[in-house]
Design goal:
225 residues, alpha+beta, five-stranded mixed beta sheet, two-stranded antiparallel ribbon, 7 strands, 40% helix, 20% strand, globular
Amino acid sequence: MNRKKIELIGDAHISNTIETPLREDAFEKSDNEKIENIQHHFSEIMKELGLDLTDDSLSGTPYRVAKMYVKELFYGLNPKNRPKISTFDNKYGYQKMLVEHNITIDSSCEHHFLPIVGTAHVGYIPKNKVVGLSKINRLVDYYSHRPQVQERLCLQILKDLQQTLETKDVIVVVSAKHLCVSSRGIKDKSSFTTTIEYGGQFIEPSLRNEFFGIIKKTMSDLFFG
């Protein structure tokens, strides 16, 4: 893609799949090999910027950045790192809505590799299975830690939970600030983005409104104090 086309497309979300685009050989190299290669290439980027890598403060930066990419920011790219989501029989027969509030979103936009920070709110109506509450948080964290667009992130969380819980009755709301908006381009410091995905019984407006009512105060406190 040439520079003119890149500029024309801008931040448009043009991906046609909810799967993160990965090459077939994405996991043939070990993490250590990837860190070594990224370290080399990031050194070259720093040199092009005119930075002196012999300075004590900068000399370790390429390694730190490489390790951060592979082990921390983007650990969610590797399916082996997906948390084990154990489910349990719904022995209580609980059939009302269950909501996990204010789950931390700490992600990165795939267009500029800048942070996406915010929260997710996840609700579901149990059928035969339930899941430990912390497992929802871990699943959100896993999908967040990869280069993302917010729409895809929302869908990936939804589809995984629907499959894991064997029910379509799941709803996911993600509200986040994008540093690619606040620190470059328009440099809008106050805006945030909200995405919503749902299925099953949440197609009914009354049920969605009940969910939105539950999370309304949480979102208001988060973004407006």
